Structure prediction request, 505 residues.
Amino acid sequence: MSKLTESAAWRALAAHAKAQSVTRIADMFSSDPMRAREFSLEAAGLYLDYSKQRASSETRALLLKLAEQQDLSQWIARLFAGEPVNSTEQRAAMHMALRNRSGKPMQAQGRDVTPDVLTVLKRVSVFADQIRSEKKITDVVNIGIGGSDLGPRMVCDALADFADGPRAHFVANVDGAQLLSALKGLKPATTLFVVTSKTFTTQETMANARAARAWSAGQSQFAAVTANDAEARKFGIAAEHIFGFWDWVGGRYSLWSAVGLPIVLALGSRRFTELLSGAHAMDEHFSTAPLAANLPVLMGLLSIWNVNFLGAASQVVAPYAQRLQLFVSWLQQLEMESNGKGVDREGRSVDYDTAPAVWGDVGTNSQHAFFQMLHQGPALHPVDFIVPVECSHALKDQHQLLAAHALAQGAALMKGATSGDPHREYPGNRPSNTLLLARLDAFHLGALLALYEHRTFVQSVIWNINAFDQWGVELGKRVAGDVLGGDKSRLDASTQALLARLKAH
Ligand code: F6P
Prediction:
């Protein structure tokens, strides 16, 4: 047994979960008329209602004791001080410095990085403003994968109504179909390729970049966003079109850096700055609010409660906003590449669950896809509902419908319903969070993304794991080398037989 599951705070929560197992969420409302207000919190333009969680004030108090036991406040301080919280790579994780609007210095690994950040941000803005004002470039194609794709792609899609620059296209998959479909109708002379890769060695990205270079036949412009300047130059990209970022920026936390270049090209630097400001507002909240009144802390602790004490089988996220259709994909990498770990900071195998599978889809589509299981399936899948209050388009009455469904689903999951017919029974007592954003604009999107980044960090601290490395992605790459390489002897019989079939065709 590891120290964590033997610890006083953990055992108190386990005992509490047992004692509370017969209390329904609906009962908690009947016994506390102030519950809805008591279990809601607002910060940086976001309003969180967590009263539909299976958590009483005693649960909240015990979770806060667990946070205290795990030194959460000290870990938040270490994160913001730029200490090497990424212990296996001895690096800081200072994505907050990328969006620091305070004018005060922020350190990474003992050095104030604010001047470097502002210099790159300036270069990115000048370059993007020039491309946007010249109007020669009609299309930008970002070539990158994982954190070098999901963040900028999701933001450009979420804020597409504000786009006033060249059309943005994103190519990630090594499947040539994606690049070919992106290039359809484009002209080399009016296309800018942005090759985004922290390492500038990722196989998929380099394959697509080479194919794009061949397609362009020397007529397209190329830019690079990378932490590996030398490789970008070797690829043939001019120094003035190479925008750097640093090893203290994790890939899945990098959209705030020059990785956001496609966002600046599509939306302009003012809008990008609003995005940074929203994230910064959430950083300020996270780093200063007391734990009991701290949005990322409460959301992180409630996730621990659901996963580790209520046995939740997964975490569902349902943004009730079509423009957030890529939010779940971005969150999957953030959450599961950060916390999908089985070894703690001391190198011991954990004997508790860590990151749950994160999945979902926009509402109301999800109601016609998998909400059946959420309502009547035997397993517990807590839901985060994300709902913009204001409608950002002309069909206001349809927005009312959308929001009404979001609220209705949370209520129905919690209340359930009895019926004489067992097939029409709804067990209810199914927990959810409802997050209201004032509107889906750059500021509130920035705050929302930063909220989930910090929620992920909070969970990693409680689980005593490193959220900022990703050794798990290396083995697959090595085996791919064996599959592609000459010596198949290291491959298992199944893979060899499959390979032979593929080769035969
Ligand atoms: O998925 C592994 C990973 O290293 C991610 O962490 C990263 O975002 C992605 O691959 C792309 O890496 P790079 O930006 O170096 O091409």
User: Anything to note?
Assistant: The longest strand covers residues 191-196. Residues 145-148, 197-199, 202, 205, 251-252, 337, 470, 473 surround 6-O-phosphono-beta-D-fructofuranose (CB under 6 Å). The longest helix spans residues 114-134. The chain has a mean pLDDT of 97.
